[in-house]
Every structure is written in C-alpha cells, then in structure tokens.
Design brief:
The chain is of the alpha+beta class. The protein contains six helices and 13 strands.
Length: 332
C-alpha cells in the first residue's frame, strides 16, 4: 500500500496514481479527511500488486523501470549537455589552433633552412658562371692578340653570355617570404571526427540518463542507414545539419514523432509530442505536402523533404512529452 499526498477527492478510488511522467504508480483506494486541521493524505494499491493481479488475469501491462525525469529536468540536462559540448568544442578548437601554430613555426623554420641552402646554391652557381665567363673573355683576348679575330668574337660572345647568366642567376636567387610559408603551413581546424562505422546496420540501446521515458517501450532498436539517409530500405530521412531526421505524423494517433540519427556520435533519438486535435490536423495537412514517399538518391528531393519537415516542425510545441535517446553500435 502506498501513502501519498496527491490531490484526490471522494470518488477517485479505483483511479490511477500517476508520477510526473504520467506513469501509473498505483491505484487509489482510500482518502483521509482533514476536518481536524491535519493535512489529508491518500492510500493507493502499489503497482507491484496491480501488476501481479494483471499477470494472474493474463492481461498485458507495459512497464519500464527507468526513473522518471521531468520535462524541466530533461531540458536542464539538455542545456547542460549543450554547454558541455560547446566547452568541449572550444577546447578542441584551442588545441587545434595550438597544433596549427606549432606546425606553422616548424614549417617556417624548415622553409628558412631550405631557403638558405637554395640561396647558397644559386650564389655558388652564379659565382662559378662568372668565373667561367671571365676566363672565356680572357681566352677571347688572347685569341685577339694572335689575330684570330673570328674565334675571338665567338669566344667573347660565349664569355659574355656566361656572365649574363651569372648575373641573372644571382638576381633570381630565392628570397624568404614568411607570409607565403604561413599560407602554405596554416592548418585548418578539422570538424569533429565521425565515429568509424557511423552508417550501415546499427543496434541502438536506450540511454536512460539522456532520455525522458513515459510510456514507450525501451527495447533495442535496429536501424540500417545508408549514406543517402535511407533507413531500413524504405524510409527516407532528410539532412538536418550533420544529422538525418524524419518526422512521422500518423493518422491514428495524436502524437508526432521526430526521429533523428547522428552518424558522428552514433546517437539515435525519438522525440514525441502529444498534440491537440487542431494541432494534429495542422500537422497532417502539412504532411500531405511531402512528396518523398520512399528512399531517394536525388539531393533535390531530399532538400524538398527537409523544407516540408521544417514546416511541420514549426507546428510543434516547444516542450516535448517524451524523448528516447539511444546509443548505437554496429550490428554483429
């Protein structure tokens, strides 16, 4: 028997006692009176006894043993997780920037050393050409004294050409430009790395710490997603940033489900919204505009699906009723 202080009245006996997630804790059985100024309280038959009764009567009773998380707590945890993710991303960027700076300094030092060697080679080559040119001009002068005018002219032309090449070689010796090295050595900050094997056949297990579970089954979920966002060979998901997303609007339920898979973290989630009749009518009308009924490899079709789904998303309330978050790993 459960003792509770929930606000119930006469006539509520036989009704359910619910937690903040809407799950049955027991069946109300009795209520005390507060005529003497004491606070009233009630009694309820515990759900363990109710479950035993239903099992004996061979009646199905869905249940889960996950602790209830209120929407406020879940949203606060999501905000905390988002802040932690931002902090981790900032740290990753700072570390990547430090690595990039170290790589740049190393590249500059290496380039400076290579530049010194190249300049010395150019100047040595220019000096050698200059010596050969001067020697050739000397030979031309000697030939001229021997009245070998034609040979002297050709030899002088060759010597002059060698000296000209020496001058050009000296002028063209490579200069050191740190700015050019900076552009070549700059290391871009890479995006967060995807988990290897983030696509294909996956088995996803519920993560209670990140979920708000009310009435849904928490068994493992098997998905098979290809690089084009086709899930289980029949349902096309649309790009949502780095993730894949599909919004389901059923005809026979008053709930809309947002299914999302993040390949980079191997995270699969189902977020459910309990809507009014008018809200469901709006969502169903917008769903009718979705043209993609099966898997498609056409990027334009997937882009149109993303646009139509965003229209449905704007019709949903800000507060969800249930969120199931799964951690996935490759099947087999």
């Amino acid at each position: 028997m459960l003792l509770h202080t929930a606000g119930i009245a006469r006539g509520n006996s036989g009704g359910p006692l619910l937690d903040s997630c809407g799950r049955v804790l027991g069946v109300n059985a009795a209520l005390t009176r507060a005529d003497d100024g004491d606070a009233s309280f009630g009694f309820a038959i515990a759900n363990e006894e109710v479950a035993a009764f239903l099992r004996e009567a061979k009646q199905p009773m869905p249940a889960n043993g996950v602790a209830c998380t209120s929407i406020a707590e879940r949203l606060a945890q999501d905000r905390s997780a988002a802040e932690q993710a931002r902090d981790a991303e900032d740290m990753r960027k700072r570390e990547a920037a430090a690595v990039a700076a170290a790589d740049r300094d190393t590249a500059i030092q290496r380039a400076r050393s290579e530049n010194i060697v190249a300049r010395e080679n150019y100047m040595a080559g220019a000096a050698l050409l200059l010596v050969f040119g001067a020697f050739t001009l000397g030979i031309a002068g000697l030939l001229l004294t021997r009245e070998q005018k034609r040979e002297a002219i050709y030899t002088a032309i060759g010597g002059g050409a060698l000296i000209a090449v020496a001058i050009v070689t000296f002028i063209l010796r490579p200069a050191f430009d740190p700015a050019a090295i900076d552009g070549a050595a700059r290391v871009s900050i890479p995006p967060p790395g995807a988990e290897p094997g983030g696509l294909g056949k996956m088995v996803c297990t519920i993560d209670p710490a990140r979920s708000r579970i009310t009435v849904s089954d928490t068994q493992d979920v098997a998905i098979d997603i290809n690089p084009d966002g086709c899930v289980n060979g029949r349902t096309q998901y649309a790009e949502a940033g780095q993730n894949w997303q599909r919004i389901l609007v059923p005809d026979d339920e008053a709930t809309v489900s947002v299914l999302e898979y993040a390949p980079t973290t191997r995270t699969y989630s189902t977020t459910r919204y309990l809507l009014s009749a008018a809200q469901m009518d709006t969502a169903r009308k917008r769903r009718a505009d979705v043209k993609v009924k099966a898997c498609s490899t056409d990027p334009a079709s997937r882009a149109d699906l993303a646009t139509r789904q965003q229209s449905i998303r704007t019709a949903l309330p800000q507060i969800f009723n249930e969120r199931l978050v799964y951690s996935c790993k490759p099947a087999g």
